[in-house]
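Training component of the fellowship. As part of building independent skills, the fellow (R.M.) carried out the full modelling exercise for a liganded target. The chosen ligand was (2S)-2-hydroxybutanedioic acid. The inputs are recorded below so that the supervisory panel can assess the work.
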Amino acid sequence: MKKLTLALSALALSISASTAFASCESGEIVAKLSHVTGGTTHPKVVAANQFAERVNTEMNGVMCVEVFPNSTLFGDSKELEALLLGDVQILAPSLSKFGSYSPKYGVFDLPFIFKDMDAAIRFANSEAGKGLLNEMQDVGFVGLGYWMSGMKYFSANKPLIEPSDANGMKFRVQTSDVAKAMIEAMGASPQPMAFAEVYGALQTGVVDGQENTWSNIYTKKFFEVQDSVTETNHQLLAYLFMTSSEFLDGLEPEVREQFLKIADEVTQQANEQVKAAEAENRANILEAGGKINTLTDEQRQKWVDTMKPVWKQFEGEIGADLIEAAAGS
Ligand code: LMR
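Fellow's submitted model of the complex:
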């Protein structure tokens, strides 16, 4: 019986450090990769696992990546601090979560700034976008690349067809001043909240709605506790795949080079796969009985007209040049 209990707890441990693929061998540099998303079809889950798999195969004996999904190691209110403390080595947080470190990432949050994900990828690969990768170097953060997640859509406990339908409602947002201003422009009230708490808050009515990608709405089952999702396409969700300068600078030059090469290749692959993952998860929502509201051009224009004044509000802190570069991508 004791043997069985031991075997079961060993199994539970290996599942909770799940997707770590290989257990790390002694002598290997261990890099913990923590993130908040879940399921199997989510773009961040797929990219994080691909990164771990490649490091664990190609750098076997030298480095080992362990992936902790679903906020099991750190949730999004603690993970950046944990990176600086050396309790985790790799993260991929949403660019909307860096407000207290740099206002410039707010450019990615501006409503309707990117026509679609291709435009966002073009901006990420441009000089202006690449320049932002190391915007937080003085803090000790190193950007390895941008991982796109998808465009965002509003869901709520009633159909939202025009922005005025959201009047007086409460929406969960990430910790982004741009997102807060955008919700206020709709005559609604923003409630910043950690990702892990969103399902419960929707279910219990602490908030009436939220905004997210098809992949998050599907893998976290938000659609089950909402009336419907409206295809607003109003904003981008993207991640900064990142490490700390302490971790990177501590690697031997050839180890660092191989690590950075894999990081770069996985980033490119992730951005090539993302549209298909989003389309798959949109279809998954419909198949699971979720409802999606589409908009006519006229209805969509009302969302644009309501939210676009937010750009001017943040021009001072983001910079007019950066806004222009992103909008022209
Ligand atoms: C959110 O908090 O809604 C997202 O940033 C979660 C994620 O990482 O996709």
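The panel noted the following from the submitted structure. Confidence is low (pLDDT under 50) at residues 1-20. Residues 36-37, 44, 94, 149, 174, 195, 212, 216, 237 surround (2S)-2-hydroxybutanedioic acid (CB under 6 Å).
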